[in-house]
Amino acid sequence: MTRSGVELPDVKVSRDGTFTFRDTPPDWNTYPQYVVTYAGDAQHVPGTATVMVEFVD
């Protein structure tokens, strides 16, 4: 997983395919882009997802 090009720690994927993580971007005035990549395994194809997040106070 990356945030705006900065690598973040790996996260564990649950058996049902879900995952959670916590992150505090260093600058709240930006719109960080998260990219999550899954390498796949014997039963699942690889995948990548991208999302841009807006923080509202």
Biggest sheet strand line-up: 2-1-3-4
Strand content: 25-35%
Radius of gyration: 13 Å
Give me the strand/helix succession: EEEE
Helix/strand/pairing class, anyone? mainly beta
Shape: elongated
How much is the average pLDDT?
88
Helix content: under 10%
**Separation of the first and last Cα atoms:** 25 Å
- The number of helical elements comes to 0
Largest beta sheet, briefly?
Answer: 4 strands, antiparallel
Number of strands: 4
Query: Are there runs of 5+ residues with pLDDT below 50, and where?
Result: none
Describe this structure in words.
The chain has 57 residues and is mainly beta. The chain is built from no helices and 4 strands. The protein starts with a strand and ends in a 5-residue tail after the last strand. The relative contact order is 0.26. The mean pLDDT is 88.
